[in-house]
Specification:
Blueprint: H1 2-18, E1 22-30, E2 35-43, H2 56-61, E3 67-71, H3 78-101, E4 113-118, H4 123-129, E5 132-133, H5 135-138, E6 142-144, E7 151-155, H6 166-169, H7 174-189, H8 195-214, H9 220-255, H10 258-289, H11 294-297, H12 300-304, H13 308-317, H14 320-327
Helix pairs in contact: 1-8, 7-8, 7-9, 8-9, 8-10, 9-10, 10-13
Length: 329
């Protein structure tokens, strides 16, 4: 279950970060068989404007004509590496078939690179697959396979804790991930561009908390991450409530009545809570079903009328059809 949660989070997270700089496709099918690339990024231009703001992640995304990202929650094993490389080669073959149909040729330098993101990697894994550690140009934790394989293993916990690696370290686990989440929150406080990213990170607590209720053997890394995200979530909720109080006080002053101030404050707080609940419900539905179609959209108002404790497990456990039946008169 943790693997699924991390996959969905990582896809949404990378999509949110990279969309301003080009086209992002998730779960991209490859033709040879039913296998999917987690994230396929196509830069909008050879050097997208401001992509350097994403640090090392932006550099990876713009390194070749396309970029394939395969993020792993747990340390990648040899079979998973081979599977990822297989998908890359299938994608290369598809590009070459398209070029042949169009009577063109694919330049070797135009073929995409694969970036395998893993929290840790054993010495055996690195010695079995990697060729060089280009610390001079890329820093610690970036391992290139032979040039013709066009594959790089990124060991997230070996990355230095500097701003340039922040967006990659958020995809790690344990203490390193918690530290990165704190850094990301601080960054978002001064940059509205990252507000949606923070909201996405907050939504992760909902999915992990639901798993915690269903599985008593949740690992220590997830438990500690839930605690950290819970603190951040409560802080966000307090900010929403404070905004509601300020809105209510302003309305009260304008009307000049104590009753108006109290009612306005309550209205503002409730409005903020409803907005927060709606964002959470929409995020869970998107994670589970890929999109919110017209039918699912009709049940959202009914769902957010419930408490978070009531609707969270229901949204995670019921199928799309069961949800529609439950909320359709």
């Amino acid at each position: 279950m943790t693997r699924f949660i991390h996959d969905q989070f990582a896809k949404q997270y990378l999509t949110e970060l990279l969309t301003p700089y080009g086209q992002v496709e998730t779960s991209q099918d490859v033709i040879s068989e039913v296998r999917q690339i987690d994230v396929l990024f196509t830069p909008a231009s050879p050097s997208p404007d401001r992509i350097e703001s994403l640090g090392l992640l932006g550099r990876m995304a713009a390194y070749s004509t396309y970029a394939l990202f395969e993020p792993f929650r747990n340390p990648v094993d040899k079979g998973e590496i081979r599977s990822c490389i297989g998908k890359l080669f299938d994608f290369h073959a598809d590009l070459e078939r398209q070029a042949k149909r169009n009577n063109t040729r694919i330049n070797e330098d135009e073929l995409p690179y694969l970036w395998i993101l893993t929290p840790t990697a054993s010495v055996d894994i690195l010695e079995s697959f990697t060729d060089t550690l280009d610390a001079e140009n890329w820093g610690q934790g970036i391992y290139f396979l032979k040039k013709g394989l066009k594959t790089v293993i990124v060991v997230i916990h070996q990355l230095p804790s500097i701003p340039e690696t922040l967006f990659l370290r958020v995809l790690g686990r344990g203490r390193g991930q918690r530290q990165a989440v704190e850094e990301l929150e601080a960054l978002a406080n001064n940059n509205p561009f990252f507000e949606d990213i923070i909201k996405l990170v907050h939504d992760l607590i909902t999915l992990l908390s639901a798993r915690n209720r269903k599985e008593q053997d949740i690992d220590q890394d997830d438990r500690e991450l839930i605690m950290k995200l819970s603190e951040m979530y409560q802080q966000l909720l307090e900010e929403i409530k404070q905004e509601g109080r300020q809105e209510g006080e302003q309305k009260g002053r304008q009307e000049g009545e104590q009753k108006g101030r109290q009612e306005g404050e309550l209205l503002g707080i409730n409005r903020g809570i409803q907005t927060e609940r709606r964002a959470m419900v929409e995020s869970i539905l998107q994670v589970r079903f890929g999109e919110i179609d017209s039918q699912l959209a009709t049940i959202i108002d009914q769902v957010i009328a419930m408490t978070r404790e009531e609707f969270t497990p229901m949204l995670l456990q019921l199928s799309r059809e069961e949800l529609l039946v439950k909320f359709t008169p």
